[in-house]
């Protein structure tokens, strides 16, 4: 790996989306990255960490709010000249045949040259027999082959791929990954430089020479891990497994940092996370439902469990599982030593409890959180002990300017109603503190546990 | 609303809003009395219109009442006919194609005939004219509402129907608790579209006169027409202003709150959670008077809906074997069957009589007449196509531009919507005056812009909505591929908006044929301007009371429109939908 001349260089890039007139979502925060010749860079991270935005900034599709993007030393204005892109959902034009789609980037060339290039890429991706089919008739894997052929025919200096295999089934994705890896390894194919987005660790280790691990909210670079394994890479080799293991650790630590309250786990990889964000007073619950947390507790055994194994076992995306674990940790039901999740005694008690007792325990834990203290106080000071949605949103925004008030409101409502702390009248959009109507109700168990 | 929480704190009420509601109710009662009085007035040879702006509220009320009476009938028709088509598989085979034809024929071509027939039925009062007016508006409103409700009946989740069966819902309860809520959103949205179309027919029918015969009825349409006759620019401006206020008021005060309210019927749980109330409905909810009306309505409603017998009282055992949704059983079923047969027979007799009458009428049409009709039809055909083509030329780039800029489209949407619902014939004379500078027979070519004025908006709407639905990945891909200039349009944008464009064309062309009848035959300041064409031929035939030619021309127009729909538009639509739809 001899990084030579830089092709794309971005420095101190920040990007915001205006969600409305007042609120701006910071998607990328102070990101600097250089893509050099012969680099194969993976952008790895959970959903919401801005990796799709980042690859669009690199290709010039998105003009970042702040910071500079240059291509071969020149400041970029508009789309990069030497970049081709493969999209998650293929982005094939349904009204053009496979041939028409692939030829789009080279229509300015003489017909003979077009035909020659077309035959080459069709052979490369194995689409010869599909030349005159419409994309509609093709399977997902075939569609993505067309997408790759369309990108390759332009003979780009940098090939960008935005989650190219995540819309495909596991087997098809495996095949395509192998084919891309073979292209990268073969000396007679011009494809050398590539940037791709993925949330799949093994995919990153399999293809990339450098892995950029991103952290979420706001999206920023947590760490850049070089990967010097020789091509073709064998997923069963110890070196490969070790690399995957290391990345597991980094991702977990990035997303589940060990707080002071959790015993620090020495000996594991220590991540340098440049946490430039200001810490705010009350810690907020991640946006998950009580049903998810209680379900997780029920499924966890006594033994500590690797977070990635959990994600795999539940068939859910890593980022989503991390959010549930975070919420459970915040309520004291879990601890997260290293990259493991370990159920606490309280968690075991909750998992074994009846619906009513469960609610009781969750309520106790919730009321310890600053944010619920704030909520109860806000309702108490109102006349009638009732607060409208509008007022509450205003108060939340004032108290927690860095959170999204609507999302926070929905989370508070989900947990507050579950734990019978508040009740909500949707007809009038009003919240009040929950009062049990009859004493008898408290004893009788509801037929259906209201967790789902 | 407040029924269930008697202990809750009293809602904040406002005297001012109470007063407004009461004044509104009182004026409603007086308005109804006034409108009813107007209907019983003897038929006048000429309409008497007071051009002072102070008389305008009265005329606006008349127009408003006609629009809503027609809407009421449209709603009832839509609910009844759609349910009939849904529950009766035999009737369905006739109703659906009939509705399809009815929706595409240019109903305005029947206006002259309809007016003459109804005036003949009620020779001594205004009732005939008023009925003609309401009927015309009805025909402009009813079809899309019917289709929308039929589609929602078909799309009702089977779970809901199973629930209704399980708890033995009466038909009324099933309608009120299941079918209407499921259909509400589509019905309300289509009502909004229908009302906008209704204003066009309203303005034309109210201002309808043929040669020396005056069929105008007092309303905003006739106010404008008299104002044009007298060249009273001030009154014309006030007329346009009044129409605009009516349109905006109905949109803001009726449809907008209803659309927001109907979001709670969204079957998609998550979208429904975001349901909001409009400021108007919140405002009204504060008024104690409305609350009380709400109470009594709620009481009436719960009386209507409450089951008259306990669920499961009727054999539940038949449930599993029952396949027809409402298999009629016992004596009641027999009577129902007979009523149904008699009804069908009656309809068949009416249709047969109508056909005989039609053949007799058409036998009077000479070969020369047929030649004129066909020649004029081809000229009108050219005009309609040119109007659609010219409309396409500017609406496609503008529509794409609007559709791909969400900010722009939300800012422009109310204006475009207003332009689309404003009845263009009201301002035809203004444009005619402009053309008179260039030619003494201005309508030959001038009819084309007149036609465009009312119809091009449909293309704009559909193109903009198709452009806004282009997936983000496709947009990024087009940018990466650096598709520019002609390649950008031919390879990317035109195919991407094709399904919307064709839908826009179908609606615009249908509307354009309708419009030829008023755009090829314009009366202004006592002078008559005509263009050669099928539309003006229909108007001329009516003026001359030449019923055979009128009938023949109307039929030719209907056949042309339905024929082109079937042979050209539907095929184009199928191709566009097959090739150019994004997604799986």
Structural description of this entry:
- The complex is a heterodimer of chains A (about 450) and B (about 575).
- With about 450 residues, chain A is of the alpha/beta class.
- In chain A, about 40% of the residues lie in helices and about 20% in strands.
- Chain B folds into two domains: about 10-40 and about 280-315, no CATH class; about 40-45 and about 55-275 and about 350-580, MetI-like (MetI-like fold, Orthogonal Bundle).
- In chain B, the strands form two sheets. In chain B, strands 1-2 form a two-stranded antiparallel ribbon.
- In chain B, a hairpin with a 2-residue loop joins strand 1 and strand 2 (about 215).
- In chain B, helix 2 (about 55-85) runs antiparallel to helix 3.
- The model of chain B is unreliable at about 1-10, about 270-280 and about 310-330 (pLDDT under 50).
- The interface between A and B is medium-sized, with 23 and 21 residues.
Keywords:
heterodimer, A: 452 residues, alpha/beta, four-stranded antiparallel beta sheet, 16 strands, 39% helix, 19% strand, elongated, disordered C terminus, B: 584 residues, mainly alpha, MetI-like fold, two-stranded antiparallel sheet, two-stranded antiparallel ribbon, 21 helices, globular, disordered N terminus
Pick out the low-confidence regions of chain B: 1-11, 269-278, 311-329
Percent helix range of chain A = 25-40%
Unreliable stretches of chain A, pLDDT < 50, 5 or more residues?
Answer: 259-282, 439-452
Tell me about the largest β-sheet of chain A: 6 strands, mixed
CATH class of the largest domain in chain B, anyone? Mainly Alpha
Overall morphology of chain A: elongated
Largest sheet of chain B: 2 strands, antiparallel
If you compute it from the alpha carbons, what radius of gyration of chain B comes out, rounded to the nearest whole angstrom?
26 Å
The tally of strands of chain B reads: 4
N-to-C series of helices and strands of chain B: HHHHHHHEEHHHHHHHHHHHHEEHH
CATH architectural designation of the largest domain in chain B: Orthogonal Bundle
Q: Mind telling me the CATH superfamily name of the largest domain in chain B? A: MetI-like
What gap, in angstroms, lies between the N and C termini of chain A? 51 Å
Q: Whole-number average pLDDT of chain B?
A: 79
Share of β-strand residues of chain B: under 5%
**Strands side by side in the biggest sheet of chain A:** 6-7-8-3-9-10
Number of continuous helical runs of chain B: 21
Structural class of chain B: mainly alpha
